[in-house]
Amino acid sequence: HHPIRNRAVRSVVACRPSGRGRAIHPVDNPISPGARPRLSTALVLTTFFPPETEADRGGMHRRVGAMLQALRPRFRRIEMLHIPAPIRSTDSAKQSAFWGMDVHTSTLTRHEGAAPFLDDHIRGLTDLSRQHPYHRYASPDLLRALQARLDTHPDLIIVDRLEPMIALRRCTTNAPILLDLNDIVHKMERAALAGQRPGLRKALAWAKWPALFWEERRAAKRATRTAVCSATDADYLRRLGFPGTVVTIPNAIAMPAHPPGPATDPTVLFLGTYGYPPNRAAAERLVQRLWPLILA
Question: φ, ψ for residue 241 (rounded to 5)?
Answer without folding.
Answer: 75, 30
